[in-house]
Amino acid sequence: MLLSRSRLSNQWARKRYIILVTSTILQLQQVVVASSSSTASTCRTKMGAASYPLLQKWQQSHDSWLLRFGLPSDQKFLGTNPMLPTCISVHHDSTLLDQDNNQVGLLKKSYSPISHPATESTFDLLVKAYTPVPGGGVGDAICNLQVGQSLVGKLKPERLVHGSPLIGKRWDRIGLIAGGTGVAPLIQLARIILDDPTDTTKVHLLSINRNEEDILLRKTINQLARDHPDRFHVSYSLTGTNVRSDWEGYTGRGSVDMAKKSLPPPTSSDGKSTMIFVCGKDGFRDMWAGPIARAPPLPDGSKGPKIQGELLGLLKEAGYDASDVFKY
Fold this sequence. Notes:
It is a single chain. By secondary structure, this protein is α/β, with parallel strands linked by helices. 27% of the residues lie in helices and 27% in strands. The chain has helices at 5-28, 30-46, 138-143, 183-194, 218-227, 256-262, 282-289, 313-317; strands at residues 50-61, 64-70, 88-97, 103-111, 122-128, 150-155, 173-179, 202-209, 232-238, 250-251, 274-279, 293-294, 306-307, 325-327. The strands form three sheets. The protein has a six-stranded antiparallel sheet with strand order 4-3-6-1-2-5. The protein starts with a helix and ends with a strand. The relative contact order is 0.12.
C-alpha cells in the first residue's frame, strides 16, 4: 500500500532531524566518538547472526536486484551509529559440491547497504545474481528470495578509513570510483555526506559499467545530482563495444585522463583535502589503485587482516598519494 505524501514528508523530516542531531553530536564530541568506536566494534563482533525478512524487491538489470529487508522489532537502525557506514556478512548454506564432491556448506559474503545508516526499520541491498559455482552462490541465493523469506546475516565491525570510521566532514572533496555493483557501498557514503545539511563536502562519482543498460542505480544517482547540483557531480563510462554514437560519457575501464577530468585533484595540488574511494572487482580495483594486501599471519597461524597495501595503478600515475586513496 502506498504511503500518503504527508506521511512520507513527515518520515523524511524525521530522518533529516536524526541526521542533523547526530552530525552535531559527532562534530562537538569527535574525541569521544573516536575513543568509543573500538568498543562498538567489539560489541558487534560478539553479536550473533540475525534474520532479516525480505519486504520488497525490484529488478535493476538482467541479473541485479534491489532488495529491502526489515529489521528485528527491537532494532531501530542496522548499525550502532546512524552516521557511520554499515556492512553485513550474509550467511548461506550452499548445497553445491566442491571438486572432491563434498558439500560446500556455509558460505559468507559481505554487502554494504545502499540505504542511509539512519534509515529506520529497514535496509536496502543491491545484489548481483552471479551463476552459482563451488565456493559462491550467495548473490544468486539472495536474489531468489521471495517476499516473506529471510536473509541471515551478521553485522560487521565499522570499517576504519585511514584510522577512523567517520566519513562526514573529514575532507573537502571525495571521489568515488565504482565498477558495477561496487557502486553500492559508495552510494551509502555519498548519502551520509549529502543528507547532512551541515556538511559541505563535494562528492564526485565515476560509475563504470559494461553497457548503458547495466548502469546500476542510475535513476537514484541522477536524482542525487539534481538534489545537490553544487555538491554532487556524476560521470559515467562504458566498457562495452556497442556504445551509441551520441553517448556523452566516457568509454573504457579507466585512464589517467579520465581520472583527472572526473575526480577531484590530489590533496597537495591546492591545499584542499581529497579522499578517493575505489570499489569493484579485484581486477578493477587493482587497475585503479593496486591490490589490497595482508598483514603478517596472526600468532595462531590464521591469516593476517587485510591492509591497504601500496598505491599503484592509474591513481598513482595521476599524482595521488596513498593517503588520498582508500580501497573499499
